[in-house]
Amino acid sequence: MNISIIGSGYVGLVTGACFAELGNKVICADNDNKKIALLKKGTIPIYEPGLEELLAKNIKKKRLKFTFNIKEAVSDSKVIFIAVGTPSLENGEADLTGIENVARNIAINMTQYRLIVEKSTVPVETGEWVKRTIQICIRSKVKFDVASNPEFLREGQAINDFMHPDRIVIGVESKKAKELIVSLYKPLNAPLVITDIKSAELIKHASNSFLATKISFINAVSHICDKVGADIREVAFGMGLDKRIGQAFLDAGLGYGGSCFPKDLDAFIKISEKLGYSFELLKAAKEINRQQQASFLNKTKDALWIIKDKTIGILGLSFKPNTDDIRNAPSIDIIKALQEEGANIRAYDPSAMPKAKEVLDKVIFCKDPYDACRGSECLLIITEWDEFKELDFLKVKKLLKRPLIIDGRNIYEPGDLEKLGFTYISVGRRKHG
Ligand code: NAD
Protein backbone atom coordinates (compact mmCIF):
# COMPACT_ATOMS: atom_id res chain seq x y z
CA MET A 1 0.00 0.00 0.00
CA ASN A 2 1.14 3.58 -0.52
CA ILE A 3 1.13 5.33 2.80
CA SER A 4 2.55 8.50 4.28
CA ILE A 5 3.55 9.53 7.75
CA ILE A 6 3.41 13.21 8.61
CA GLY A 7 5.77 14.00 11.46
CA SER A 8 9.14 12.26 11.21
CA GLY A 9 10.23 12.14 14.84
CA TYR A 10 10.68 9.09 17.06
CA VAL A 11 7.25 7.68 16.27
CA GLY A 12 7.00 8.80 12.65
CA LEU A 13 10.40 7.44 11.61
CA VAL A 14 9.94 4.11 13.36
CA THR A 15 6.41 3.73 11.96
CA GLY A 16 7.61 4.66 8.48
CA ALA A 17 10.61 2.33 8.56
CA CYS A 18 8.56 -0.59 9.91
CA PHE A 19 5.69 -0.19 7.44
CA ALA A 20 8.28 -0.04 4.64
CA GLU A 21 9.92 -3.18 6.02
CA LEU A 22 6.49 -4.85 5.81
CA GLY A 23 6.49 -4.15 2.07
CA ASN A 24 4.60 -0.86 1.78
CA LYS A 25 5.72 2.24 -0.11
CA VAL A 26 6.15 4.93 2.50
CA ILE A 27 6.71 8.68 2.40
CA CYS A 28 7.81 10.30 5.66
CA ALA A 29 7.07 14.02 5.74
CA ASP A 30 7.99 16.76 8.17
CA ASN A 31 7.83 20.55 8.27
CA ASP A 32 11.36 20.74 9.66
CA ASN A 33 13.39 21.08 6.46
CA LYS A 34 16.71 20.58 8.28
CA LYS A 35 15.49 17.21 9.50
CA ILE A 36 14.29 16.20 6.05
CA ALA A 37 17.58 17.34 4.48
CA LEU A 38 19.50 15.16 6.98
CA LEU A 39 17.24 12.18 6.36
CA LYS A 40 17.63 12.54 2.60
CA LYS A 41 21.39 12.37 3.09
CA GLY A 42 20.97 9.21 5.16
CA THR A 43 21.65 10.85 8.53
CA ILE A 44 19.28 9.94 11.35
CA PRO A 45 18.54 12.86 13.67
CA ILE A 46 17.74 10.62 16.64
CA TYR A 47 19.30 7.60 18.33
CA GLU A 48 17.10 4.52 18.33
CA PRO A 49 18.69 1.06 18.25
CA GLY A 50 18.36 -0.62 14.84
CA LEU A 51 16.60 2.33 13.19
CA GLU A 52 19.53 3.51 11.10
CA GLU A 53 19.95 0.08 9.48
CA LEU A 54 16.21 -0.35 8.89
CA LEU A 55 15.91 3.08 7.27
CA ALA A 56 18.98 2.50 5.09
CA LYS A 57 17.72 -0.90 3.94
CA ASN A 58 14.28 0.39 2.95
CA ILE A 59 15.59 3.55 1.30
CA LYS A 60 17.84 1.32 -0.82
CA LYS A 61 14.90 -0.89 -1.76
CA LYS A 62 13.02 2.27 -2.78
CA ARG A 63 10.22 1.61 -0.32
CA LEU A 64 10.93 4.69 1.77
CA LYS A 65 11.50 8.32 0.98
CA PHE A 66 11.33 11.68 2.73
CA THR A 67 9.71 14.95 1.83
CA PHE A 68 9.17 18.45 3.12
CA ASN A 69 6.21 18.73 0.79
CA ILE A 70 2.95 17.64 2.47
CA LYS A 71 1.19 17.85 -0.92
CA GLU A 72 3.42 15.08 -2.25
CA ALA A 73 2.69 12.92 0.79
CA VAL A 74 -1.06 13.45 0.47
CA SER A 75 -1.34 12.94 -3.27
CA ASP A 76 0.68 9.72 -3.34
CA SER A 77 -0.84 7.90 -0.37
CA LYS A 78 -4.18 6.32 0.41
CA VAL A 79 -3.51 6.15 4.13
CA ILE A 80 -1.99 9.14 5.92
CA PHE A 81 -0.74 8.79 9.48
CA ILE A 82 -0.40 11.92 11.60
CA ALA A 83 2.57 11.48 13.94
CA VAL A 84 3.40 15.08 14.84
CA GLY A 85 4.25 16.11 18.39
CA THR A 86 1.47 16.96 20.85
CA PRO A 87 3.45 18.72 23.59
CA SER A 88 2.03 20.28 26.74
CA LEU A 89 0.83 23.86 26.82
CA GLU A 90 1.83 25.78 29.93
CA ASN A 91 -1.51 24.92 31.59
CA GLY A 92 -0.97 21.19 30.95
CA GLU A 93 -3.41 20.85 28.04
CA ALA A 94 -2.17 19.12 24.90
CA ASP A 95 -1.02 21.56 22.24
CA LEU A 96 -2.85 20.36 19.14
CA THR A 97 -1.58 23.10 16.83
CA GLY A 98 0.46 20.58 14.82
CA ILE A 99 -2.53 18.24 14.45
CA GLU A 100 -4.78 21.06 13.22
CA ASN A 101 -2.12 22.31 10.88
CA VAL A 102 -1.64 18.89 9.32
CA ALA A 103 -5.41 18.27 9.10
CA ARG A 104 -5.80 21.53 7.14
CA ASN A 105 -2.88 20.72 4.90
CA ILE A 106 -4.24 17.27 4.13
CA ALA A 107 -7.69 18.74 3.39
CA ILE A 108 -6.46 21.30 0.89
CA ASN A 109 -4.30 18.77 -0.93
CA MET A 110 -6.76 15.87 -1.07
CA THR A 111 -8.16 15.06 -4.49
CA GLN A 112 -9.47 11.54 -3.86
CA TYR A 113 -10.45 9.26 -0.97
CA ARG A 114 -7.97 9.28 1.91
CA LEU A 115 -7.90 7.63 5.30
CA ILE A 116 -6.40 9.98 7.88
CA VAL A 117 -5.10 8.17 10.95
CA GLU A 118 -4.22 9.80 14.26
CA LYS A 119 -1.07 8.11 15.52
CA SER A 120 -0.03 10.96 17.78
CA THR A 121 -1.31 10.76 21.35
CA VAL A 122 -4.31 13.07 21.56
CA PRO A 123 -7.09 13.85 24.03
CA VAL A 124 -10.44 12.17 23.53
CA GLU A 125 -12.62 13.87 20.89
CA THR A 126 -9.63 15.10 18.84
CA GLY A 127 -10.84 12.82 16.04
CA GLU A 128 -14.07 14.86 15.92
CA TRP A 129 -12.03 18.05 15.55
CA VAL A 130 -9.84 16.55 12.84
CA LYS A 131 -12.94 15.47 10.92
CA ARG A 132 -14.57 18.88 11.29
CA THR A 133 -11.37 20.69 10.25
CA ILE A 134 -11.03 18.58 7.11
CA GLN A 135 -14.71 19.06 6.25
CA ILE A 136 -14.32 22.84 6.56
CA CYS A 137 -11.05 23.08 4.58
CA ILE A 138 -11.68 20.50 1.88
CA ARG A 139 -11.87 21.97 -1.62
CA SER A 140 -14.07 19.47 -3.44
CA LYS A 141 -16.48 16.70 -2.51
CA VAL A 142 -13.79 14.18 -1.79
CA LYS A 143 -14.67 11.36 0.58
CA PHE A 144 -12.44 10.62 3.55
CA ASP A 145 -12.34 8.75 6.83
CA VAL A 146 -10.64 9.56 10.09
CA ALA A 147 -9.33 6.82 12.36
CA SER A 148 -7.40 6.55 15.59
CA ASN A 149 -4.44 4.18 15.89
CA PRO A 150 -2.49 5.23 18.99
CA GLU A 151 1.12 4.13 19.24
CA PHE A 152 2.47 2.20 22.24
CA LEU A 153 6.14 1.80 21.26
CA ARG A 154 8.82 2.58 23.82
CA GLU A 155 11.92 4.53 22.87
CA GLY A 156 15.00 2.32 23.11
CA GLN A 157 13.08 -0.75 21.89
CA ALA A 158 10.77 0.95 19.45
CA ILE A 159 11.29 -1.32 16.44
CA ASN A 160 10.68 -4.47 18.41
CA ASP A 161 7.62 -2.90 20.05
CA PHE A 162 6.22 -1.87 16.67
CA MET A 163 6.83 -5.26 15.09
CA HIS A 164 5.66 -7.30 18.11
CA PRO A 165 3.00 -5.23 19.84
CA ASP A 166 0.91 -6.52 22.76
CA ARG A 167 -2.09 -5.19 20.86
CA ILE A 168 -2.96 -2.83 18.04
CA VAL A 169 -5.73 -0.39 18.86
CA ILE A 170 -7.85 0.75 15.94
CA GLY A 171 -10.66 3.28 16.33
CA VAL A 172 -12.81 3.50 13.20
CA GLU A 173 -16.21 4.64 11.99
CA SER A 174 -16.46 2.87 8.64
CA LYS A 175 -15.95 -0.59 7.21
CA LYS A 176 -13.59 0.79 4.58
CA ALA A 177 -11.34 2.45 7.17
CA LYS A 178 -11.31 -0.71 9.26
CA GLU A 179 -10.37 -2.89 6.28
CA LEU A 180 -7.56 -0.56 5.23
CA ILE A 181 -5.88 -0.41 8.63
CA VAL A 182 -6.44 -4.07 9.40
CA SER A 183 -4.79 -5.05 6.10
CA LEU A 184 -1.78 -2.82 6.86
CA TYR A 185 -1.20 -4.53 10.20
CA LYS A 186 -2.07 -8.07 9.05
CA PRO A 187 1.57 -9.20 8.64
CA LEU A 188 2.22 -8.50 12.34
CA ASN A 189 -0.33 -11.11 13.39
CA ALA A 190 -0.98 -9.20 16.62
CA PRO A 191 -4.18 -8.99 18.70
CA LEU A 192 -6.41 -6.23 17.34
CA VAL A 193 -8.71 -4.06 19.44
CA ILE A 194 -11.22 -2.58 17.07
CA THR A 195 -13.38 0.09 18.59
CA ASP A 196 -14.76 3.58 18.02
CA ILE A 197 -12.43 6.58 17.69
CA LYS A 198 -13.10 8.07 21.14
CA SER A 199 -12.52 4.75 22.90
CA ALA A 200 -9.24 4.29 20.99
CA GLU A 201 -8.09 7.77 22.01
CA LEU A 202 -8.99 6.99 25.61
CA ILE A 203 -7.18 3.63 25.59
CA LYS A 204 -3.92 5.48 24.98
CA HIS A 205 -4.37 8.18 27.62
CA ALA A 206 -5.72 5.69 30.15
CA SER A 207 -2.87 3.21 29.53
CA ASN A 208 -0.11 5.77 29.95
CA SER A 209 -1.79 7.28 33.00
CA PHE A 210 -2.23 3.84 34.55
CA LEU A 211 1.45 2.98 34.02
CA ALA A 212 2.55 6.33 35.47
CA THR A 213 0.27 5.71 38.47
CA LYS A 214 1.83 2.27 38.97
CA ILE A 215 5.30 3.87 39.08
CA SER A 216 4.10 6.50 41.55
CA PHE A 217 2.48 3.82 43.70
CA ILE A 218 5.71 1.86 44.14
CA ASN A 219 7.63 5.09 44.70
CA ALA A 220 5.23 6.02 47.49
CA VAL A 221 5.77 2.60 49.09
CA SER A 222 9.57 3.12 48.83
CA HIS A 223 9.31 5.99 51.33
CA ILE A 224 7.74 3.65 53.86
CA CYS A 225 10.55 1.15 53.20
CA ASP A 226 13.15 3.86 53.86
CA LYS A 227 11.44 4.73 57.13
CA VAL A 228 11.24 1.20 58.54
CA GLY A 229 14.30 -0.44 56.92
CA ALA A 230 12.32 -2.73 54.60
CA ASP A 231 13.46 -3.41 51.02
CA ILE A 232 11.38 -2.03 48.14
CA ARG A 233 12.90 -4.50 45.66
CA GLU A 234 11.64 -7.43 47.72
CA VAL A 235 8.29 -5.76 48.38
CA ALA A 236 7.80 -5.11 44.64
CA PHE A 237 8.84 -8.65 43.75
CA GLY A 238 6.40 -10.10 46.26
CA MET A 239 3.62 -7.88 44.93
CA GLY A 240 4.44 -8.53 41.28
CA LEU A 241 4.19 -12.30 41.56
CA ASP A 242 0.45 -11.77 41.88
CA LYS A 243 -0.69 -12.11 38.27
CA ARG A 244 -3.26 -9.38 38.80
CA ILE A 245 -0.38 -6.97 39.54
CA GLY A 246 2.62 -8.16 37.47
CA GLN A 247 6.30 -7.18 37.83
CA ALA A 248 6.47 -4.46 35.16
CA PHE A 249 6.61 -0.81 36.19
CA LEU A 250 7.23 -1.66 39.83
CA ASP A 251 10.76 -0.25 39.98
CA ALA A 252 11.11 2.46 42.58
CA GLY A 253 13.42 5.31 41.63
CA LEU A 254 13.47 8.85 40.38
CA GLY A 255 10.03 8.53 38.84
CA TYR A 256 8.83 8.72 35.29
CA GLY A 257 10.03 11.29 32.75
CA GLY A 258 10.27 11.46 29.00
CA SER A 259 8.14 13.02 26.33
CA CYS A 260 5.05 10.91 27.03
CA PHE A 261 4.04 10.12 30.62
CA PRO A 262 4.30 13.64 32.11
CA LYS A 263 2.51 15.30 29.21
CA ASP A 264 -0.08 12.58 28.74
CA LEU A 265 -0.96 12.60 32.43
CA ASP A 266 -1.33 16.39 32.32
CA ALA A 267 -3.43 16.23 29.18
CA PHE A 268 -5.68 13.52 30.64
CA ILE A 269 -6.17 15.54 33.85
CA LYS A 270 -7.03 18.60 31.74
CA ILE A 271 -9.43 16.93 29.32
CA SER A 272 -11.17 15.24 32.28
CA GLU A 273 -11.52 18.64 33.94
CA LYS A 274 -12.99 20.10 30.73
CA LEU A 275 -15.48 17.26 30.67
CA GLY A 276 -16.46 17.98 34.30
CA TYR A 277 -14.45 15.32 36.15
CA SER A 278 -11.63 16.07 38.56
CA PHE A 279 -9.18 13.16 38.20
CA GLU A 280 -7.73 13.27 41.75
CA LEU A 281 -5.92 9.92 41.40
CA LEU A 282 -3.82 11.25 38.52
CA LYS A 283 -3.12 14.50 40.34
CA ALA A 284 -1.74 12.46 43.24
CA ALA A 285 0.38 10.31 40.89
CA LYS A 286 1.83 13.48 39.41
CA GLU A 287 2.60 14.98 42.82
CA ILE A 288 4.31 11.77 44.02
CA ASN A 289 6.45 11.85 40.87
CA ARG A 290 7.47 15.44 41.59
CA GLN A 291 8.39 14.49 45.17
CA GLN A 292 10.70 11.67 44.02
CA GLN A 293 13.15 14.16 42.54
CA ALA A 294 12.84 16.48 45.52
CA SER A 295 13.52 13.59 47.88
CA PHE A 296 16.57 12.50 45.83
CA LEU A 297 17.96 16.04 46.01
CA ASN A 298 17.35 16.09 49.76
CA LYS A 299 19.22 12.81 50.15
CA THR A 300 22.12 14.30 48.20
CA LYS A 301 22.14 17.43 50.35
CA ASP A 302 21.87 15.38 53.56
CA ALA A 303 24.87 13.32 52.48
CA LEU A 304 27.04 16.22 51.32
CA TRP A 305 25.89 18.93 53.76
CA ILE A 306 27.26 21.93 51.80
CA ILE A 307 26.74 21.76 48.04
CA LYS A 308 28.50 25.02 47.12
CA ASP A 309 31.76 24.49 45.21
CA LYS A 310 31.54 20.71 45.47
CA THR A 311 32.00 18.63 42.33
CA ILE A 312 29.29 16.05 41.72
CA GLY A 313 29.57 13.18 39.23
CA ILE A 314 26.43 12.29 37.32
CA LEU A 315 25.84 9.07 35.39
CA GLY A 316 22.91 9.17 32.96
CA LEU A 317 21.22 12.09 31.24
CA SER A 318 18.59 10.50 28.99
CA PHE A 319 15.18 9.99 30.57
CA LYS A 320 15.71 6.24 30.31
CA PRO A 321 18.37 3.89 28.92
CA ASN A 322 18.95 3.20 25.21
CA THR A 323 17.76 6.56 23.96
CA ASP A 324 19.21 10.03 23.50
CA ASP A 325 15.88 11.63 24.43
CA ILE A 326 16.22 14.13 27.27
CA ARG A 327 12.67 15.56 27.15
CA ASN A 328 11.47 15.77 30.78
CA ALA A 329 14.52 13.80 31.87
CA PRO A 330 15.01 14.01 35.67
CA SER A 331 18.73 14.65 35.02
CA ILE A 332 18.08 18.14 33.69
CA ASP A 333 16.14 19.42 36.71
CA ILE A 334 18.48 17.70 39.15
CA ILE A 335 21.60 19.17 37.53
CA LYS A 336 20.05 22.65 37.38
CA ALA A 337 18.98 22.45 41.05
CA LEU A 338 22.49 21.39 42.13
CA GLN A 339 24.08 24.11 40.00
CA GLU A 340 21.80 26.69 41.62
CA GLU A 341 23.29 25.68 44.96
CA GLY A 342 26.78 26.15 43.54
CA ALA A 343 27.76 22.60 42.57
CA ASN A 344 30.15 21.81 39.71
CA ILE A 345 28.86 18.97 37.56
CA ARG A 346 30.80 16.26 35.74
CA ALA A 347 28.36 14.19 33.67
CA TYR A 348 28.46 11.19 31.38
CA ASP A 349 25.82 9.50 29.23
CA PRO A 350 26.43 6.98 26.43
CA SER A 351 24.19 8.81 23.92
CA ALA A 352 22.39 11.84 25.31
CA MET A 353 25.33 14.23 25.74
CA PRO A 354 24.92 16.07 22.41
CA LYS A 355 21.27 16.87 23.25
CA ALA A 356 22.09 17.69 26.88
CA LYS A 357 24.76 20.18 25.73
CA GLU A 358 21.99 22.19 24.07
CA VAL A 359 20.10 22.74 27.34
CA LEU A 360 22.75 22.63 30.07
CA ASP A 361 25.41 25.23 30.82
CA LYS A 362 28.69 24.85 32.64
CA VAL A 363 28.57 21.07 32.81
CA ILE A 364 31.77 19.14 32.16
CA PHE A 365 30.75 16.36 29.78
CA CYS A 366 33.00 13.38 30.38
CA LYS A 367 34.40 10.70 28.11
CA ASP A 368 33.30 7.74 30.25
CA PRO A 369 31.81 6.93 33.68
CA TYR A 370 35.23 6.98 35.36
CA ASP A 371 35.97 10.42 33.99
CA ALA A 372 32.74 11.62 35.68
CA CYS A 373 33.99 10.20 39.01
CA ARG A 374 37.37 11.93 38.79
CA GLY A 375 37.64 14.38 41.71
CA SER A 376 33.89 14.23 42.48
CA GLU A 377 32.56 14.22 46.05
CA CYS A 378 29.95 11.64 45.15
CA LEU A 379 28.42 9.81 42.23
CA LEU A 380 24.72 10.17 41.38
CA ILE A 381 23.04 7.49 39.27
CA ILE A 382 20.25 9.09 37.28
CA THR A 383 19.65 6.68 34.36
CA GLU A 384 19.98 2.90 34.54
CA TRP A 385 22.12 2.28 31.43
CA ASP A 386 23.54 -1.29 31.42
CA GLU A 387 27.04 0.21 31.10
CA PHE A 388 26.74 1.61 34.64
CA LYS A 389 25.78 -1.72 36.18
CA GLU A 390 29.21 -3.27 35.62
CA LEU A 391 31.63 -0.60 36.81
CA ASP A 392 35.04 -1.35 38.30
CA PHE A 393 34.21 -0.11 41.79
CA LEU A 394 37.77 -0.16 43.05
CA LYS A 395 38.61 2.28 40.28
CA VAL A 396 35.49 4.34 41.07
CA LYS A 397 36.51 4.47 44.73
CA LYS A 398 40.01 5.67 43.85
CA LEU A 399 38.70 8.41 41.55
CA LEU A 400 36.00 9.78 43.90
CA LYS A 401 37.02 12.15 46.69
CA ARG A 402 34.88 10.07 49.00
CA PRO A 403 33.20 6.71 48.43
CA LEU A 404 29.60 7.92 48.21
CA ILE A 405 27.05 6.71 45.65
CA ILE A 406 23.49 8.00 45.59
CA ASP A 407 21.54 5.75 43.30
CA GLY A 408 18.27 7.09 41.90
CA ARG A 409 17.59 3.85 40.01
CA ASN A 410 18.52 1.12 42.51
CA ILE A 411 20.92 -0.56 40.08
CA TYR A 412 23.37 -1.90 42.67
CA GLU A 413 23.12 -4.32 45.56
CA PRO A 414 23.52 -2.33 48.79
CA GLY A 415 25.48 -5.16 50.47
CA ASP A 416 28.01 -5.40 47.62
CA LEU A 417 28.86 -1.71 47.67
CA GLU A 418 28.90 -1.48 51.44
CA LYS A 419 31.40 -4.37 51.53
CA LEU A 420 33.66 -2.35 49.21
CA GLY A 421 33.54 0.53 51.65
CA PHE A 422 31.01 2.75 49.88
CA THR A 423 28.25 4.70 51.53
CA TYR A 424 25.35 3.67 49.32
CA ILE A 425 22.10 5.62 49.36
CA SER A 426 19.23 4.15 47.38
CA VAL A 427 15.49 4.51 46.95
CA GLY A 428 13.92 2.28 49.58
CA ARG A 429 16.53 -0.52 49.65
CA ARG A 430 17.53 -2.17 52.94
CA LYS A 431 20.93 -1.22 54.29
CA HIS A 432 23.21 -4.13 55.14
CA GLY A 433 25.96 -2.55 57.22
P1 NAD B 1 8.90 14.15 17.93
O1 NAD B 1 8.94 15.51 18.49
O2 NAD B 1 10.10 13.29 17.98
O3 NAD B 1 8.43 14.21 16.40
C1 NAD B 1 7.39 14.99 15.94
C2 NAD B 1 7.73 15.49 14.56
O4 NAD B 1 6.60 16.16 14.02
C3 NAD B 1 8.90 16.47 14.52
O5 NAD B 1 9.88 16.01 13.62
C4 NAD B 1 8.27 17.78 14.05
O6 NAD B 1 9.14 18.55 13.24
C5 NAD B 1 7.08 17.26 13.25
N1 NAD B 1 6.00 18.24 13.09
C6 NAD B 1 5.45 19.03 14.03
N2 NAD B 1 4.47 19.78 13.49
C7 NAD B 1 4.40 19.44 12.18
C8 NAD B 1 3.58 19.86 11.10
N3 NAD B 1 2.65 20.80 11.28
N4 NAD B 1 3.79 19.30 9.88
C9 NAD B 1 4.73 18.35 9.71
N5 NAD B 1 5.53 17.90 10.70
C10 NAD B 1 5.37 18.45 11.92
O7 NAD B 1 7.67 13.43 18.66
P2 NAD B 1 7.45 11.85 18.89
O8 NAD B 1 8.16 11.44 20.12
O9 NAD B 1 7.67 11.13 17.61
O10 NAD B 1 5.89 11.85 19.24
C11 NAD B 1 4.90 12.06 18.26
C12 NAD B 1 3.55 11.71 18.86
O11 NAD B 1 3.54 10.30 19.21
C13 NAD B 1 3.23 12.46 20.16
O12 NAD B 1 1.85 12.70 20.21
C14 NAD B 1 3.62 11.47 21.24
O13 NAD B 1 2.91 11.66 22.43
C15 NAD B 1 3.25 10.15 20.60
N6 NAD B 1 3.99 8.99 21.10
C16 NAD B 1 5.33 9.10 21.35
C17 NAD B 1 6.02 7.97 21.80
C18 NAD B 1 7.49 8.07 22.11
O14 NAD B 1 8.01 7.17 22.78
N7 NAD B 1 8.20 9.09 21.65
C19 NAD B 1 5.35 6.75 21.98
C20 NAD B 1 4.00 6.67 21.69
C21 NAD B 1 3.33 7.81 21.24
Structural write-up:
With 433 residues, the chain is α/β, with parallel strands linked by helices. It has two domains: 2-195, 3-Layer(aba) Sandwich (Rossmann fold), CATH 3.40.50; 229-425, NAD(P)-binding Rossmann-like Domain (Rossmann fold, 3-Layer(aba) Sandwich), CATH 3.40.50.720. It has 17 helices and 14 strands. It has helices spanning 10-21, 33-40, 51-60, 70-76, 97-109, 126-137, 158-163, 175-185, 197-228, 232-240, 261-274, 280-304, 330-340, 353-359, 369-373, 393-399, 414-419; strands at residues 2-6, 25-29, 64-67, 79-82, 114-118, 144-148, 168-171, 192-195, 311-315, 344-348, 363-365, 378-381, 404-407, 423-425. The strands form three sheets. It has a six-stranded parallel sheet with strand order 3-2-1-4-5-6, sandwiched between helices. A six-stranded parallel sheet has the order 11-10-9-12-13-14. Helix 1 (10-21) links the parallel strand 1 (2-6) and strand 2. Nicotinamide-adenine-dinucleotide binds at residues 6-12, 30-32, 35, 83-86, 98, 101-102, 120-121, 151, 153, 155, 259-260.
